[in-house]
Amino acid sequence: MITINMCSDPTEDAYNLRIEGHAGYAPEGQDIVCAAVSALALSLHGWLAAHPEICLWASRDSGGSARFLFHRTPGSRAVYEMLSAGLSSIAAEYPEYVRISREVLR
């Protein structure tokens, strides 16, 4: 199962995102659920690489884990909301393979 933790922390003025695991929907190389989540994570990674002034930390590994921490700005808010909508759609369609937890720290 892929677990996703999305955290918005207004006091730190940052978004924190952690993605871990494998869906297990299909064999490696054929898993459309992993591919969909990976495509969104890679898109965020690429966007943050193009905006280093926003990125506080970005890491991904071959084991299926990715972690991102980035400043809250009008542009990053739009990216975070788009990412959240995409991941939510995948989790809604494949709930036995993707779980999302959300936190808003106050």
Can you offer a commentary on this structure?
The chain is of the alpha+beta class. The protein has one domain: 2-Layer Sandwich (Alpha-Beta Plaits). A five-stranded mixed β-sheet has the order 3-4-2-1-5, covered by helices on one side. A hairpin with a 5-residue loop joins strand 3 and strand 4. Helix 1 runs antiparallel to helix 2. The longest helix has 20 residues. The radius of gyration is 13 Å and the shape is globular.
Topology (SSEs and partners):
Elements: E1 2-9, E2 14-20, H1 32-50, E3 55-60, E4 66-71, H2 74-93, E5 98-104
Parallel strand pairs: 1-5
Antiparallel strand pairs: 1-2, 2-4, 3-4
Helix pairs in contact: 1-2
Structural class: alpha+beta
Outline the low-pLDDT stretches: none
Quick one: how many beta strands?
5
Query: Largest sheet, if any?
Result: 5 strands, mixed
Q: Categorize the overall geometry.
A: globular
Q: Assign the CATH superfamily.
A: Cysteine protease Prp
Enter the CATH topology name: Alpha-Beta Plaits
The sequence of SSEs as H and E is EEHEEHE
Radius of gyration: 13 Å
Domain unit count: 1
Average pLDDT confidence is 92
For the biggest β-sheet, the strand order reads 3-4-2-1-5
- Beta-strand percent range: 25-35%
Helix percentage range: 25-40%
End-to-end C-alpha gap: 29 Å
